Fold:
Amino acid sequence: MVSIDPKSISTAQLQGYLQSSVGPRPIAFASTVDGNGTPNLSPFSFFNVFSANPPILVFSPARRVRDNTTKHTLKNAESTGEVVINVVNYDMVQQTSLSSTEYPEGVNEFLKSGFTPIASDLVKPFRVKESPVQFECKVTQIIALGTEGGAGNLVVCEVVKLHISEAVLDANGAIDQYKIDLVSRLGGNWYSRANAGLFEVEKPLNTLGIGVDAIPDFIKESDFFDGNDLGKLGNVEKIPTQEEIAIFVKENFEVKAVLSADDLDKKFQKAKEYLAKDRAIEAWKLLLAKK
Structure:
């Protein structure tokens, strides 16, 4: 057995060990607003429920290891004292991951990730319509655990109202664990799906994904592509150029055959197959290619 003194390794190494061994961890998809009412949306896997009476949830936006800066969610929670915690199921996992991209302050992650904001009843932050359970919360306490990179900040939240989709309830009005289909976080790119086990989600690009808002309407409005497909398309650094698309078509006989059929459904179906194999750039090239 390898024995390690936490002080003998880097914070990044220690964080990797912690995240890879303590899991699977539930995901708090935290919605906040700043002092000007600008929305912010970000997932946190240092999260759990700690009390039923009063109903208390706690999540921890840690200081960034690389530069010791704090996240917008923490700043907003400190300044407004309100947050909505949305749970994450499989149908929304790719878009949730995309929202963790570190866009500049003031950028609306609802738009970037393609989620639908809906008004809360008792707090200012918006709820995520696509989430099967949404908790409106008042922040009762924030406990800083340190001042260096990697230090957590426990945001203690009291639930003042919760919203549950009827689609995840059973005949007795209880939440059906199969229907809710929750996902959780592990180390690296790994996630766990309650109904099916381990799967990977490619981490958002450090150079910023283009976002779901940059995807053309003819793609977003198609019934072929679900939220996870759109999340993958939005996580590319840039849309392929016409020259790149032309080379792709020229070198790919199967793509030529799809395009020659002049059938949009076949084109969309093939693009969806690329996305299922995490080949988002090829999906983009096919979608934008002309006959």
